[in-house]
Amino acid sequence: MSAPAIEVRGLRHRYGELDVLMGVDLEVARGSIVALLGSNGAGKTTLVRILSTLLTADAGSVTVEGHDVATAPMAVRQAISLTGQFAAVDEILTGRENLGLVARLRRHPDPGGVADALLSRFGLAEAASRRVGTYSGGMRRRLDVAMSLIGAPSVVFLDEPTTGLDPEARREVWAAVRALADAGTTVLLTTQTLDEAEHLADRIAILHQGRIIVDGTLAELKALIPAPTVELIEKQPSLEEVFLAVVGARPRKEHP
Ligand SMILES: Nc1ncnc2c1ncn2[C@@H]1O[C@H](COP(=O)(O)OP(=O)(O)OP(=O)(O)O)[C@@H](O)[C@H]1O
Ligand SMILES: [Mg+2]
Description:
Layout: E1 6-15, E2 18-28, E3 33-37, H1 44-51, E4 59-64, E5 67-68, H2 73-79, E6 80-83, H3 95-105, H4 111-121, H5 137-148, E7 155-159, H6 167-182, E8 186-191, H7 194-200, E9 203-208, E10 211-216, H8 218-222, H9 239-248
Parallel strand pairs: 3-8, 3-9, 6-7, 7-8
Antiparallel strand pairs: 1-2, 1-4, 4-5, 9-10
């Protein structure tokens, strides 16, 4: 078995008095999609920021593609891309101009070529010459994800890629993310919605009260709930029921 693309051990982070990550352990296999599931304020963005070298952890270790984020942050940056929780597209520019700008910033040899290739891959070719200010939420998000792929990163972090999108737009983003993983890219995404994790992820990790309290495939998570006994039609537990069962056992800690 090849080494995992992402390996997190005993990771801790606090903001002042607020302990957010209290010993996070996580492995992400190369070419897989892992959904990091957690409520508001669970620390998902904090974890993604540490993994993508934007924030330094207080303790623990992280390697991405074998590079340590603390001692080799530049090597990590070369291997990854990050799509933040809030879209980073420029509304005044067209879709094609946004992509071309990022390609030039990353010193891509053919900015126009890579822009066109990504526009058609994300179903934005027809809107390429329109200002992004006229795009729908789903189109913006797809452009945002497309921008993060310039330079062909091997690991992609997506922080809540579909928050605020309607069901159709979410499915479009899901298809784009699935295509990435099928092409061998490793994807770690955060989400608050259980159906997103259920539809998209190979493995689901639940971050709660500073730790990964559950990590497994959907089938493994569902097995955590006792099977129904006296129902005539067997009902499979939804991920929502699994989540509430594992989280509900631990009373929610109120942050100040
Ligand atoms: N720069 C900061 N300074 C102080 N506290 C912070 C800072 N950033 C985040 N926090 C706090 O740390 C906790 C975790 O925040 P984080 O943004 O990582 O959560 P999240 O899981 O991404 O939440 P959401 O689902 O709302 O995006 C929250 O209580 C938040 O208020
Ligand atoms: Mg967040």
